[in-house]
Amino acid sequence: MLDRRTFLAAGGAAAASTALGTPDTAFAATGLKLGRPGPFSFDRLAAQAEALAGRPFVAVPTPPAAVLDRIDYEAHGKIRFDTGSALFRDGPGTFPVTFFHLGRFFPAPVRMHLIETAAGDGFEREILYDPGYFDMPADSPARQLPPGAGFAGFRFQESRRGDAKAPDWRKNDWVAFLGASYFRAIGALYQYGLSARGIALNVAVPGQAEEFPAFTHVYFEPPTDGGDSVTVFALLDGPSLAGAYRFVMQRGQAVVMEVDCRLFLRRDVARLGIAPLTSMYWYSETRPTAADWRPEVHDSDGLALWRGNGERVWRPLNNPAQTTASAFADAQPRGFGLLQRDRAFDHYLDGVHYERRPSLWVEPIGDWGEGAVQLIEIPTDDEIHDNVVAFWVPQAPATAGMHYRLRYRLHWTDAEPYPAPLARCVATRTGRGGQPGKPRPAGVHKFMVEFVGAPLAALPFGTRPELVLTATRGSFSYTFAEPVPNGVPGHWRAQFDHAAEENEPVDLRLFLRHGTQALSETWLCQYRPS
User: Fold this and answer.
1) Residue 515 neighbours by CB distance under 10 Å
2) What 8-state DSSP symbol labels residue 3?
3) What's the predicted TM-score (pTM) here?
4) CB 304 within 8 A of CB 419
5) Is domain 424-527 in CATH 3.40.910.10, yes or no?
6) How does residue 167 score in pLDDT terms, banded at 50, 70 and 90?
7) Which end of the chain is less crowded, N or C, counting CB atoms within 10 A of the terminal residue's CB?
8) What is the secondary structure of 137-178 as a DSSP string?
């Protein structure tokens, strides 16, 4: 998986330098060199992807490895793009574009292009790499790269308008594309966290290596002057498929991206992951660790589902002993996401501010048919690795020659964009089963699941909600619900013990109700009795 610390470090680099002018373009003031014009439209890009998929895969040539390998973490951190050379720095639109340099961790060049007419239908010119766009030490190994080496990725800076609530655009960015088909955005709390990808192929498939197709060409549409949205097109290519993407990205209190993707398969794919989300979960209050001093460490603490039948589901994340794949079958899903619900600083006590990490919600547009949201959880013993992946997998097998067109929205925010009226789960705690003051029985596990919400606050005085519990195996005991004595209206916890033999995983299911009325979302949990 992509090393998230490397991504954050690269994504946090600033910029500065001088550059050469190009007199035959309206954006010459930025100092960017542009290549010869060529025709462009999204349909033409999709046709190009389809044609690529009909031919054997050819990897993008990379600059000399001996040079790239010397642009290590330290050397890359000293290479900064000149914001005076930013695309749209003085042209139309609100958000300038700056570029990432190639290096050891991001060796594959991505060709950047400027579309010369709005609406994505006209001509494009390649933005030609020049070391003069970057401020770098005189002895930087990057100076030994050949002409036209290319860029590693790009980012949109904050508003040039200098909004009172926004940081200086020269120092802060709000979306970044870097590495294969990875990209990320800040949420409403001005923090990067989890990532999205264009596609995920064969994640955690036994006997097969995961494949990482890459965006090889990116096209920037000139934005409307003063507008709060930007449009980017991208060509995706990899051994098993090719594709064309359109991203319409809106910068408001949160970041919303509307994605239109067209995919063409070269060969069979065992696990085709649509709209993949990638995050980090080490531990939380569910299962604390003695290996670290902080109470919790995670970018996301659960998977949320809004199923096609209207059911709301919360599945707390695990850090399993071995790689685990879970599937949640559905038809016409309304949405899913990896969320960071715990927003209390004292639950993390870390200056990197995990409590500010964005939640990411996928909203399908149109009918996605039948399939499953799949969750892959990979063991980790540190916070530097992204070890959680969630995506939609169509029910029909993904075979060579198939093509897909899918649309969806990505909401990078601080909470679900479409909150349910039900009480939501805010914590899952586990421990030894049994009752205080009595011998603790072997093989019995205790669960304390906390819910908060208006339906629980509206319960008549003296009324307790009913626990609706099921399990794939084993038995329940010592079950009850009680209000959490913290003065927060509608804050209840459901307590139960569960016992099961053997070490195979157990899937638990719980929700609270009063009479026939559901009061809470459905809580799901998977655990091993050992």
Assistant:
1) 9
2) B
3) 0.92
4) no
5) no
6) low
7) C
8) -TT-GGGGSPTT--BSEEEEESPTT--TTSPPTTT-EEEEEE
